[in-house]
# Entry
Amino acid sequence: MKLWSGRFQKETDELVNDFNQSISFDHRLYKQDIQGSKAHADMLASCGIISQEDNAAIQAGLSGILEDVEAGKVEFTTDNEDIHMNVETILTARIGDAGKRLHTARSRNDQVAVDFRMYVRQAITDLIPEILNLQQALVEQAEQHQETVMPGYTHLQRAQPITFAHHLMAYANMLCRDVTRLEDCLERMNECPLGSGALAGTTYPINRHMTASALGFAKGPMMNSLDGVSDRDYALEVMSDLSILMMHLSRFSEEVIAWCSWEFKFIELDDAYSTGSSIMPQKKNPDVAELVRGKTGRVYGDLMSLLTTMKGLPLAYNKDMQEDKEPVFDALDTVGMCLPVFTGMISTMKVLPDNMASAANKGFINATDCADYLTKKGMPFRDAYTVTGALVYHCTQTGKTLEQLTLDELKEISPLFGEDVFDALNMLNCAFQRNSFGGPAKAETTRQIEYIKSFIAAHSAQ
Ligand code: ARG
# Structure
């Protein structure tokens, strides 16, 4: 017998039963469902809506169910549709009438709203340390490569000299925003829908502030009961945040994939984080990075799926909204898998500074420095730019780099060149002379590394 079978004369068609059920995926909410029910029952008793004896039986019964679920002793059934009805049915089977009183002054719309919110809140809280771990791995690699020169790119063309530490710290800074975005979301969503009823509140003298605080919702109960049961913004917001995080990881993945190709060979991935080919014996493939890049599309899809589900839905609850859980679970699971494996890949990768340096030495990435040298000797920058362009052309014709030109060759183009130009064109010097705030100079990358360390400390174990 279904909990709602009262007004029905017929059994649900078996196909409909399977189609309608959500227990096959919302069983994940068992802990939150039990926690929510316990808080609700405590509140009902404290407001004199149910007796203390009934509440004691409900509390003991729910604790027993929780233990049994965790010990794998409970089998949920599709006959009971979802996690909320499964738990209630089991409770009533175990404790009788007291179990039937639990649903006084609440609805399943209430339950799903509060359970899912608590689940997402916990999942984000668990995910943040994984981002911090990745930042820590970046800090540790960066600390060893503050003097490792590499070409910085624009348009994927070698542009100006930077250091590997500088490049890694760019990602570490993006990850700071990913962390704070999730923290903002946590803050905003931390208000409690429970007590909204089906949509219109309840005639019972409930205390929503009490349940909100028992369930850790710092901002108290949600202001409007229709909004309380209709809102899935927080789920969309977290998937937007996860999509941006994955976008960052996909850019990083793309670079890792490029860097370990023979065309670049800036890094070598650890054997434990690479895979082979079934036919080509020489292959060592960056599958981890490729999968992270690939799974980014999947997380975007999860976001699009729920945005589309929610589009145009009238207030308040609609069954469409049962489709909210799978994409959110999938996005959280996917990101939860990507982060630790990505961190492992980064912390074990071997950096090949010589290859980075020889790439930096080709492509005239010190041309800006050459123009700056002339500018500092008094030539207007636009003229210095043109003179340097002519030098680059000369080099392309003679197969030389700028720093391989003789002082005589340089002086022929401008008498402002002196012996000190060779220091000015040295790649490491070029990177280190970029000492503007946020640049690749050693003191600057040290500042960036220290900032990330303090960020990690400030955002750990909050
Ligand atoms: N299983 C449903 C869901 O996930 C729970 C809420 C059902 N409410 C209802 N009125 N049918 O959305």
